[in-house]
Amino acid sequence: MKILVCISHVPDTTSKINFVNGDSEFDTNGVQFVINPNDEFGLTRAIWFKEQQGANVTVVNVGGADAEATLRKALAIGADEAIRINANPTDGMFVAKQLADVVKNGGFDLVIAGKESLDYNGGMVPGMMAAMLGFNFVNACVGIDVNGNDAKVTREIDGGKEIVSASLPLIIGGQKGLVEEKDLRIPNMRGIMMARTKALTLVEPTGDASATKAVKFEKPAAKSAVKLVSADNLDELISLLHNEAKVI
Amino acid sequence: MSILIYAESAEGKIKKVAFELASYAKKVAASMGTTVTAVTINNSDNSALAAYGVDKVLNVSNDKLNNFSAKAYADVIAQAAKKEGTQIVLVSSSTDSLYLAPLVAVALEAGYASNVVALPESTSPFQVKRTAFSNKAFNITEISTPVKVLGIAKNSFGLVENAAAMTEESFAPSLNDADFGIKVENVEKVTGKVTIADAEIVVSAGRGMKGPENWGMIEELASVLGAATACSKPVSDIGWRPHSEHVGQTGKPVASNLYIAVGISGAIQHIAGINSSKVKVVINTDPEAPFFKVADYGVVGDAFTVVPQLIEKLKAFKASNS
Predict the structure, then answer these.
(1) CA pair distance B309, A234, nearest whole angstrom
(2) In which residue ranges of chain A is pLDDT below 50?
(3) Torsion, Cα of B65, B66, B71, B77 (10° steps)
(4) Mean pLDDT across the stretch B145-158?
(5) Is B139 on the interface with A (CB under 8 A)?
(6) pLDDT at residue number A209
(7) What are the chain B neighbours of A175 within 8 Å (beta carbons)?
(8) Which residue of A has its CA nearest to B201?
(9) Which end of chain A is more exposed for a tag (fewer CB within 10 A), N or C?
(10) Class of domain B201-321
């Protein structure tokens, strides 16, 4: 089984979010970048398929040279090879188109992407890629098993779970649940050394299929101070929620 | 030309998120001098949509669509959009709509903006405001394609009644086998319990509860309020509560009217996930807990004494208000 894991290079979840150039660009100054958490759960599951079922795992990113450190981390965790599509990931449609080309040319059986990235939260790349390729697609996956050409996938639904079956090739939008938090791996020295010699192929983008453009960013308005209610006077809290906030 | 909404239904009823879409669509349609069309799937009574300004319903009835299939549903919506000559398609932020929206966008060669939180900033060029960086920022997105797909964030616009003389017609899109490549084997759905996605009120608790055996009071508080229960990431990681309850940046997002956090300190990732809630209440022993900086109301106190008292007082309040 050939697996492709799509990796977004995103600010660490603890990052302070600021903007520069007239609020048109994210301020990367002092920001630590990581593998997008939704992608990391998928990557870890892919490594499990490699170790248990002999799968071959390729990781891919659409981004600039700065994303290579993130791809090297994925290699250190256990991916076999990496591809970087040398382009600024301007919009979901554009990224999906670049990735669809990689899938088509690489003959992948299973493509795992995070259901959304934690920077732009577009939540569209895996679905668009599937629609462009005509592949089966399951979103918000919290579990996957593959037996030969058949996959059994669990997806989250509002208020529960749904178990579906599909044949490969398949694209999934993954999240926590594909593996647990405790299963995530920290690269060890041997992995880091081996990652240095693994192939990282540079591919130039094709076309310009962007459909949207982020023109400006805003930070939420400053919040007014919390109203403290004494623990001995919870009637006041109920009154505030009822009369002032009007939520109960 | 009209604006198309996908009106989701469950158990024979149009869902509330669909009324919010209709309210939003009506407002945009009025500014553009057009009408609102809703597409519904296997739902016989669509009359409730009229109150929110829907001018026309395209009612699809097909046994093949009894189970949700993102590809087939997306196909239905895309064909409805083509039939109506729609330039704007609106979907909700339900799990199913988030699943099908990118498929609709590709089928219509449309730009798609998700998590939209306000009416368009302008319609020419077409710009909308959406959340980004996990609710830590907003982003104005410009969509340059002739057809646009918008995912409207839950609870961001609200319901606006605006009665329309609604007409209804049946619509039979053509479906093919490729639409049903994903077979539903089993659905495990909690019944009789409010889900985090649909809840108006969410009661959430963290490590301050000291152990899973103490969740009884959290469930009781939720039950008194008709709320869903949720938890912080550490609590789901150590297995006190199921992952399905984990809310935050890497868990489920919450956009309820009221969010009550009990014994949750308020890590930046947690706040990011729940910040779209309208009113936030924190109950914590530590007055320095970061949650107090983002909350509207706060109680400094021990959950083990505050929560039981709050339950009793809420019961009395509910009794006197019913």
Answers:
(1) 8
(2) none
(3) 60
(4) 96
(5) yes
(6) 75
(7) 250
(8) A247
(9) N
(10) alpha beta
